[in-house]
Design brief:
Layout: H1 3-33, H2 42-49, H3 56-61, E1 66-71, H4 78-81, H5 86-96, E2 100-106, H6 112-115, H7 124-138, E3 146-150, H8 156-164, E4 172-175, H9 186-197, H10 203-213, H11 225-235, H12 251-266, H13 277-280, H14 283-296, H15 302-312, H16 319-326, H17 343-349, H18 351-361, E5 382-386, E6 389-393, E7 417-422, E8 425-430, E9 440-448, H19 451-459, E10 467-471, H20 476-479, H21 488-496, E11 501-505, E12 518-523, E13 540-544, E14 549-552, H22 556-561, H23 580-585
Parallel strand pairs: 1-2, 1-3, 3-4, 9-10, 10-11, 11-12
Antiparallel strand pairs: 5-6, 7-8, 8-12, 9-13, 13-14
Helix pairs in contact: 1-14, 5-12, 7-8, 8-15, 9-10, 9-21, 11-14
Length: 602
């Protein structure tokens, strides 16, 4: 193993020892003495069997595993619309393997792409906790010996895992749906967005461009949070190998889902290959996820999501771990917004099998984790349809070295993530898509409490200068930590004009954050007393990703004497008032910004 990866892993194991032990004790008790079908009374079982006729006799005879399907299906969102037929297909495939399957429950799936820049976005992060709770409810009936988790986008996969890991004695497999085929290139889409921000094109042209990019069922094709989710599930060994980026509606996608159903039936506790989710997701799997994130230039949202997933399994990972790994893990992929190719181009060039083979060969991934499928080395092979099934083969050399490079000859020797710290607190910055000439920005601040005010100032020409845009009261306790992706086009326009521009916020950027340097997730957040609340218009702020600092260049005595800004009142409407309990209980971003694990012992 790479010594830096090994050292971080050892640190996480030691830090997590007490909580992880308590978690493993919990799932052992649930396995041995927890609620299961043989314990249920006849009336209880009758209720559970009443919704099915075809499988009732098999369930009654307890002939095999009953698989619970937890689905995020809806047909308003492209990524989840693909799941429409999955349950009925999986029931057939379960019967092929001597098992049965039932839809245990549904979880909400909202889209940041739809709500971006609007009030609904303030529900987005806490939809993850809602999904976790919904998953727990779905699995609470004691009717299932395993589960298939059908989810793909930003908060859905983390939420499914957070809930499912509390039932970690059950074997479970994540079942993705795949990305839509390539439409309008992401770079061309971004150019139209910037032109619209400048008033050079109208709404009709912008809408046509957006529809050209987002045009069919499947995930968006840029390498944002949704597709980073799928990368992480591969490097954690929670998919059937190679399942991440096969397109919907293909024979390969169908066979991968069929294989997942068959595999679930084989890894239950009645057999000799028991693979419970809580054992699969261990400290080494969490480190693999972090390494994969850094090696591929994935979404900054996972600096929040991965700590929350880890906590659900009794594991603690922090930003110091990410920072240390980033300095040892090479960047082997360039996928938009860190390059010009989309995830389909990435898949064609070798995709996750190539990445895993390279990182495993370089000692950067733990090869001894328990996966849902077999040996972790199997994830370094490419699935191919053969007859009425699958075979796996070596992915060969990179099909395009502008997209994928071997670990021995990477795009960068480092993973492109930094922690920033100073009198403005601690923050994260993703620099893999930022020109190194812009890793250090020093400019006067312009302070805002709402992203709409930033856009208004831009349109009025008030930001046409060197500027550090500070957007505060955007943390989980203040307003649910919405993404601020709507700020990317205007800030990009300012940067294109030659100005020195940066964003500093206690909120989130999109998983598609790119060329503008952004210090995000500032902690502690302003509502909790964070020092970002002391910044005033005109203060010179220095963001230095080279030195790892984030400072307001204000006299220390004056800084100490300043009072924090007054928080605006909580917003109402669009259901935001219903989530006051979540906002009040939310942890800091570095702990996962979750309400459901706040104060938890494990």
């Amino acid at each position: 193993m790479n010594p830096a990866v090994s050292a971080v892993t050892d640190r996480i194991i030691e830090r997590s020892r007490e909580r992880r032990s308590a978690y493993l004790d919990l799932i052992a008790r649930e396995r041995d003495a927890g609620l299961k079908r043989p314990m249920l009374g006849c009336a209880n079982l009758a209720h559970g069997y009443a919704g099915t006729e075809e499988d009732r006799d098999a369930m009654k005879a307890d002939r095999g595993m009953n698989i619970g399907i937890v689905t995020s299906y809806n047909d308003m969102l492209s990524a989840h619309a693909v799941y429409y037929r999955y349950p009925e297909q999986m029931k057939v495939w379960a019967r092929e393997a001597g098992a049965t399957a039932q839809v245990a429950g549904g979880v909400p799936a909202m889209c940041d792409g739809v709500t971006q820049g609007y009030p609904g976005m303030e529900l987005s992060l806490f939809s993850r906790d809602t999904i976790a709770l919904s998953t727990a409810i779905a699995l609470s009936h004691g009717m299932f010996e395993g589960a298939a988790l059908l989810g793909i986008c930003d908060k859905i996969v983390p939420g499914l895992l957070m809930g499912a890991l509390r039932f970690g004695h059950l074997p479970m497999i994540l079942v993705p749906g795949g990305p839509m085929r390539t439409g309008l290139a992401n770079k061309a889409k971004a150019a139209v967005r910037e032109a619209f921000a400048e008033g050079k094109v109208g709404r009709d042209e912008l809408l046509d461009a957006e529809i050209g990019a987002y045009h069919s069922k499947g995930t968006c094709t840029f390498y944002g949070t949704a597709n980073t989710n799928q990368m992480m599930m591969e490097v954690m060994g929670l998919h059937i190998p190679g399942a991440a980026f096969a397109n919907p509606g293909t024979k390969l996608r169908q066979e991968l889902t069929r294989a997942a159903t068959h595999r679930l039936a084989a890894i239950g506790w009645e057999g000799d290959d028991y693979r419970p989710l809580g054992r699969c997701v261990d400290e080494k799997a969490i480190v693999n996820a972090a390494v994969g994130l850094l090696a591929t230039g994935g979404s900054t949202n996972h600096l929040i999501h991965l700590p929350a997933i880890a906590r659900a399994a009794g594991i603690t990972i922090d930003w110091e771990d990410f920072d240390a790994l980033s300095r040892a893990v090479p960047l082997v992929a360039r996928v938009y917004p860190n390059g010009s190719a989309d995830v389909n181009g990435f898949e064609d060039a070798g995709g996750m099998p190539f990445v895993i083979r390279e990182l495993l060969g370089a000692g950067l991934l733990h090869g001894d984790i328990m996966t849902v499928a077999g040996e972790f080395a199997d994830y370094g092979k490419r699935p191919v349809v053969e007859g009425d099934g699958l075979r796996w083969e070596d992915p060969g050399a990179s099909g395009d070295e502008t997209i994928l490079r071997p670990a021995s000859d990477p795009f960068s020797p480092e993973g492109g993530f930094r922690i920033l710290a100073g009198n403005l607190g601690r923050a994260c910055i993703k620099v893999s898509a930022v020109d190194p000439e812009r890793w250090v920005i020093e400019a006067p601040a312009r302070v805002f409490d709402d992203q709409a005010d930033v856009q208004a100032a831009f349109k009025a020409g008030d930001l046409d200068r060197d500027v550090v845009v500070v957007v505060r009261f955007q943390g989980p306790r203040a307003n649910g930590m919405p993404e601020l992706h709507k700020l990317t086009p205007p800030l990009g326009v300012l940067q294109n004009k030659g100005f020195k521009v940066a964003l500093v916020t206690d909120g989130r950027m999109s998983g598609a954050s790119g060329k503008v340097p952004a210090a995000i997730h500032c902690s502690p957040e302003v509502l909790g007393g964070g020092p970002l609340g002391k910044v005033r218009d005109g203060d010179v702020v220095r963001l230095d990703a080279v030195a790892g600092t984030l400072e307001a260049l204000v006299d220390a005595a004056e800084w100490e004497a300043r009072e924090l800004a007054q928080a605006p009142p909580p917003a109402e409407g669009m259901g935001r008032e219903l989530f006051g309990l979540f906002r009040g209980a939310a942890d800091e971003a570095e702990l996962g910004a979750s309400a459901i694990f706040a104060g938890a012992s494990m």
